[in-house]
Amino acid sequence: xxxxxxxxxxxxxxxxxxxxxxxxxxxxxxxxxxxxxxxxxxxxxxxxxxxxxxxxxxxxxxxxxxxxxxxxxxxxxxxxxxxxxxxxxxxxxxxxxxxxxxxxxxxxxxxxxxxxxxxxxxxxxxxxxxxxxxxxxxxxxxxxxx
Length: 146
Known about the structure:
CATH architecture of the domain at 41-131: Alpha-Beta Complex
InterPro entries: Gln/Glu-tRNA_Ligase, Glu/Gln-tRNA-synth_Ib_cat-dom, Rossmann-like_a/b/a_fold
Family: Belongs to the class-I aminoacyl-tRNA synthetase family.
Radius of gyration: 18 Å
CATH superfamily of the domain at 41-131: Glutamyl-tRNA Synthetase, Domain 3
Strand order of the largest sheet: 3-4-5
Keywords: Aminoacyl-tRNA synthetase, ATP-binding, Ligase, Nucleotide-binding, Protein biosynthesis
Protein name: Glutamine--tRNA ligase
Oligomer: single chain
Organism: Geodia barretti (Barrett's horny sponge)
């Protein structure tokens, strides 16, 4: 069993524990196979850095509203962010500073996959992979600014 507990503002420990208790009450025993997404934060971060190094992700500084506007519509393609062509070095610097919590505003920067702003599937138009979230996580505390 795996829990996606990456958003600390939506996941309450009481909620997680009640699901575990209910599943156990139904007779399921996962033994040593209970996993949380937060168990893999370091590995996911390393994957994200590799995406940046490979040119497949970039740090965007548009607001959430601007990202929606740039994404386009079902009938019109999206527009590339003006930050899409930042250098690998600048992207890595900004991403590492995001992790360190250096930017005080949630959403000041996000990491987006560099896919295709012309895709007919809106979800494939440079989706957000990481965002700044200043919130304590019920499993990792303040070790991450996710």
